[in-house]
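Render ADP-dependent (S)-NAD(P)H-hydrate dehydratase in 3D.
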Amino acid sequence: MECHQSVGWTRRVGGWRPRRSCAVTLHQIGPPDPARLSKHEGQHKYDHGHALILCGPPGHGGAARLAARAALRVGAGLVTLACPAAAIPENAARLDAVMLRAVDGGADLAQMLTDRRLNALCLGPGLGLGPVQAHLVAVALAAGRAVVVDADALTLIARSPDLAAGLHPGCILTPHTAEFARLFPDLAGAVGLAARADACRIAAGRARATVLLKGAETIVAGPDGSVAVHRATGARAAPWLATAGAGDVLAGLIAGLLARGFAPAEAAGTAVWLHVEAARVTGPGLIAEDLSEALPAVLRALLRQAETDSGSGVVTG
């Protein structure tokens, strides 16, 4: 799909105004390749990566737990939730297959990340906005791993040019419209798909990272100038995603796919499609916890397509 009248931005006194720019080709995000989501005979959990989800203080762990479960459901071989020592008991009471580690500051996280098997991180859901959390974000970015930057981590980066300077091509920023405006105030206010896509493309280039701008028309832009869109409208509408915690699940899905070796833009696009499909499977009454529970049905439907390849060794669950 091509938007032949994309919109760029140019400075004027008192702010920024739209200007015409070159056409932007928007690739439509469709169903993922079942082979990319398969698990095969002879593989073990370490073949599917290890995602690390950072968690906030006691009483604030729900969002990170949602992300952790989603990362595990989408196929990460291992998932660890890192939280302050004081939050271990409440998280242990609510998680089983997800491992727990005490991380009370940047030094603890830096030590943990000496284990190179931890190959994907998720920062932000329920993390907190204090100086300790800002240091955690700085350490995580400096480690050079694939990183999902969501929620509180986006706010911390918007407040700190030093943190923003630590972004790199392995990062995926996942803002909703208000968070995007805090991160890129000069690009805020774009109306219409073409304008939003162009703003997202500019933002990704500026951040040197993938940017996923959430909405009914979710846009994924890479630092290489690529732009794709998923339209959860019409036959694929999923209005039930307008519920607390849905974004935390999306962040976890992306982290799990990064752990499995997906490139940032591919992980973002695949996660968006799975997220919407899980909502459509569940339907009215959906709460965030339902999304991960619906994922096996979504994956089975996709993987049935691979079962016709005899001798493939595909595990369909």
